[in-house]
Design brief:
9-stranded mixed beta sheet; Alpha-Beta Plaits; Beta-Lactamase; 4 domains; TIM Barrel; 23 helices; alpha+beta
Length: 730
């Protein structure tokens, strides 16, 4: 068989053998052998000149590519043979251009070869650089084998091993490899990356009520929404089941991450259409950021997992950032769960009642029953701590039924015009027999059904809405009233209101707090909710009103009832009865004239930096705009300081008021919400920067990254007096 080649290549070959008389019989034999090798598919042959332009390609190769020699001969080799990406097939290799430039030998180099038909073939190249007697490079001579079928198979197998078959997203293996590789590369370049862990709230309910095919379709739609939201900012993957992960390189702005997490929560919570039926789920998000929360893949993943657990424990349908305190909180939660079970057995949980008041007349129209727990050792334990623990267990059903029975009994001692509202958990609501439990509580107490309000959060809409709708209809037949609690914060049930089950909408306190601040959009939201409720014939309640300016605003916007400290904190049944015994059914508003920025009481040790000194202080309370600290004396108003909240959080501050041993600080830049009731700085000082300040990177760990350089020998006399620190738990 004749071999395809260009004349210059033939002349070059002749020149290379000048002066050597080869046996005439050997020439046709070599040609025949090479042709037979090609014909059998064992190999093809190619050559280049000293400029790495193709000078020869054998006839079988040209036939396979559907090309004429004139279209390829003279073309740079790197345009004929293209590099391929490593897709998990074990083809990681130096680029062809790199090897040609280095005059390296080509061993098993896999390349893609475009054909005249617009498709690709995959070849495995071998080749050597040719050097003449003077040491001059003459070009490459090589062979090729078509491995297209095997390469396509290997690529498919590799893809299946790294891609989730159901959703098409990266799977756990690929995500772990990407995260490990990214963290290793980013350590060298001192870059950051964020990791989000997600799992779906109430996904099991959809699977159980609508079937596994519906669950699979739901996961596909979730994957599509996540991919659209994240876009090219990062990589989305499915770990398995209802767990997803988002890897976000070069992101450490916790404000932006919180906004993205909130958009994810809201998007995933929108209704899904599955085989003609409507379903709603939710999601919780845990966020960790390297290098602050972990330097290795497993460490960062554990941090994100802990944050996810905290988000689900808080209330679900929210996000949470990792903090070093979460490690201690996990063990405390387990201990609290044991004590809670004992407390329920001993009937230590009691009810308190907070009035819902008509702001026009100050008359109480309803009391909401709220759980309270006083532990003999730990004292009063907040419902925000023990209710989520009970929610993760069937214990919430026992607690809920107890509260329902007791509230109905207590309400019988009130005037007939006063209603009682009882919170119902999603677990309690969807449990078979809930209607029977409500009817039993009414019958046992003798309370008229119209005086009982069941407050239900949007989380009950998660899952199969047909089953939920049936429960609502059964409850309405009993004659009880239904209130939608925390409206606007959960699973976007706006469209569901048209079914007409609800008698009342409660405007969540997150829309009320700060509604009087300049530029706040919450007044518009309050107005919209009130207008919606009035159009549907529903009553509205503004929750969490604490200041007179907030009361004036919600009253002006048309809220029917107001609930909050402005009228009363939750009070005991004895206090309720004493109030009525005085012949009064009114609660007078009393509170500060203006809203103050939300603050939380903390009592923990932090640091304060002034000039070249580092002081230990106690953080008493914290808000978005400032803090109060104890532990120093002699600090004048107007002093500029830096508050070290730990874990790389430094806040530039100014002292705005002082007392004998405490100072009030105003922050230069507002803090942001951490998604779980606390505050945090938008940015942190990288531990890499701290390492440059003299702290070995290996010693940083996952602690608070103390700024040790301020603890070295001081160059000046301290300006303030350090007092002995004492606070609860220190």
């Amino acid at each position: 068989m004749a071999l395809g080649f260009r004349k210059s290549a033939r002349d070059s070959n002749r020149a290379g053998t000048e002066g050597q008389e080869a046996p005439q019989a050997a020439r046709p034999e070599r040609s025949v052998v090479l042709g037979e090798v090609e014909e059998l598919g064992i190999g093809m042959f190619w050559a280049t000149d000293a400029e790495d332009h193709l000078t020869f390609l054998s006839q079988r190769a040209l036939a396979d590519l559907g090309a004429e020699s004139e279209t390829l001969i003279g073309t740079p080799l790197t345009r004929v043979f293209l590099d391929v990406d490593d897709q998990g097939t074990g083809t990681a290799q130096r680029s062809l251009a790199f090897k040609l430039k280095a005059r390296s030998k080509l061993d098993e180099q896999i390349v893609a070869v475009p054909t005249a038909r617009g498709t690709n073939r995959w070849w495995r190249l071998n080749g050597r650089a040719m050097i003449d007697a003077k040491g001059q490079f003459q070009g490459y001579r090589g062979s090729a084998v078509d491995i297209s079928a095997q390469y396509a198979y290997d690529t498919q197998v590799a893809r299946q091993s790294q891609v989730d078959e159901l959703t098409g997203l990266a799977n756990r293996r690929k995500l772990n490899e990407r995260l490990s590789a990214m963290l290793a590369a980013f350590r060298a370049s001192k870059r950051s990356c964020a990791l989000m862990m997600l799992d779906l709230d109430r996904f099991k309910q959809v699977n159980d009520t609508m079937g596994h095919p519906a669950g699979d379709e739901l996961l596909k739609q979730v994957a599509q929404r996540l991919s659209k939201l994240v876009g090219n900012q990062g990589e989305v993957g499915r770990l398995g089941g209802d767990e997803f992960q988002v890897l976000l390189p070069d992101m450490d702005d916790r404000g932006s991450l919180g906004e993205l997490a909130n958009r994810i929560v809201q998007s995933i919570s929108q209704p899904y259409q599955i085989n003609g039926r409507r379903a709603i789920i939710g999601t919780s998000v845990g966020i960790a950021i390297a290098p602050y929360d972990g330097l290795e893949a497993d460490e960062l993943t554990r941090s994100a997992d802990m944050a996810l657990y905290s988000a689900k424990e808080t209330r679900g349908g929210t996000f949470c950032f990792f903090t070093s305190e979460l490690r201690d909180a996990a063990s405390k939660t387990a201990m609290l769960g044991e004590r809670l079970r004992d407390a329920v057995d001993r009937e230590e949980l009691k009810l308190a009642y907070q009035p819902l008041v008509d702001p026009e007349t100050n008359e109480v129209k309803c009391f909401e029953a709220l759980l309270r727990w006083h532990d003999g050792d730990a004292g009063d334990i907040s419902p925000s701590h023990f209710i989520p623990i009970a929610e993760n267990d069937d214990l919430i059903i026992r607690i809920g039924e107890m509260a329902l029975r007791q509230a109905c009994i207590d309400a019988m001692a009130w005037p007939d015009t006063i209603r009682v509202a009882v919170n119902v958990s999603a677990k309690q609501f969807i449990r078979p027999g809930f209607r029977k439990a409500v009817a039993s509580a009414l019958q046992a107490s003798g309370l008229a059904p119209g005086r009982l309000e069941l407050e239900i959060t949007e989380s009950v809409f998660v899952g199969d809405l047909e089953s939920v709708d049936a429960i609502f209809r059964d409850l309405k037949k009993l004659g009880v009233r239904l209130a939608l609690d925390d409206f606007g914060t959960g699973y976007s049930s706006l469209g569901y209101l048209k079914h007409g089950h609800f008698d009342k909408i409660k405007i969540d306190q997150s829309f009320v707090r700060g509604c009087t601040e300049n530029g706040d959009i919450n007044p518009a939201i309050i107005t919209a909710i009130v207008a919606l409720a009035k159009a549907l014939g529903m009553e509205t309640v503004a929750e969490g009103v604490e200041a007179m300016d907030e009361l004036a605003l919600v009253q002006d916007r048309g809220a029917d009832l107001v609930q909050g400290y402005i009228f009363s904190k939750p009070i005991t049944q004895d206090e309720v009865l004493a109030h009525f015994a005085e012949g009064a059914a009114r609660f007078r508003p009393s509170g500060p004239p203006r809203h103050r920025a939300e603050r939380i009481t903390i009592f923990r040790k932090v640091g304060l930096i002034h000039e070249d000194h580092y002081y230990d202080v106690i953080l008493r309370n914290l808000s978005k705009t400032g803090a109060r600290i104890n532990g120093l004396a002699g600090v004048p108003v107007g002093t500029e300081v830096v508050l070290d909240l730990g874990h790389g959080q430094l806040v530039v501050s100014k002292v705005v008021n002082v007392s004998e041993n405490s100072q009030g600080l105003k922050f230069e830049t507002q803090m942001i919400s951490d998604g779980s009731g606390g505050f945090m700085t938008r940015h942190r000082i990288s531990p890499y920067s701290l390492a440059e300040a003299g702290i070995p990177l290996a010693a940083l760990g996952a602690g608070a990254f103390p700024l040790a350089k301020w603890r070295e020998a001081h160059k000046s006399v301290p300006a303030f007096m350090q007092l002995e620190l004492s606070a609860p738990g220190l």
